[in-house]
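Example 3.2
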Amino acid sequence: MPNFLTKLAERMYSNAYLLLTITALFWAGNFVVGRGVYEQVPPVTLAWFRWLGAFLIILPFAYKHVVNDWPYIKKHWKIILTLGVTGVGTFNTLVYIGINYTTAINGLIMNSSSPMFMAIMAFFLFKERLSTVQLFGILLSVIGVLTVVLRGDVAALGNLRFNIGDLIVLGAFFVWAFYTVMLKLRPAIHGLSFLCTTFLIGVVTNTPFFMWEMWTGRYIHLSTGSISALLYVAIFPSILAYICYNRGVQLIGSNRAGAFLHVVPLFGALLAVLTLGEKLELFHLAGFVLIISGVILTTRKPAPV
């Protein structure tokens, strides 16, 4: 039985599409939770406790690997610091701040911008190109996202207004695109070592802003809901999702992995149905088909020349 479970875990850890789908589900929950508790937990406080909790949870499992990898961590400290500050310390904090000021619809639309940012950055930084089919896949996924968040009503596009929250969330996904593309330069250290060090960098990065937030009188309101939210964001969208996402990027590259960010709004809509009692409409199904079709096209391996 242990051998079976080990082989199953190895197969799952080698399946980029499964890992990235799990990532999308956990990150969709992160968005819903962050929006749901923003009146009880200030945004930087949520980010600070998220990374502190994730760091403390993973430390006992990662400590031995960090000690073994320490020479490589010191040697490659610049890229590890860059990845920790951007993908951990900055991205999620900006998302939590942004959703204090914008709507769920606008926030989900901003999410779909990441794969396009990734393609642009990968081109300029590493000369990676997207095929015509992959570009069409991105476009198809964006249409699917719009179908879901606009509830199938094209006329709703005319009512969209960009405010400071929209711009902050857009900036967050620009930062995330940079982090994803730069993962190509991640040093060959154990995955737990990488997570442990970048989570700690995330805590340190957010500490001065967390202290400023408390100094301005914004405190966490402890309740069953807020504590549950802190536990969720520390475990699922942090430890588990980052393990899955980093491995997925390692297996299929940033451009193809980035396409799975289009699935996050879909899962977000489905979670809203389950948690808020909203009805599942035809436009949800249409959006699902479009998004998944786009992901399939974007993640196809280029045909041999």
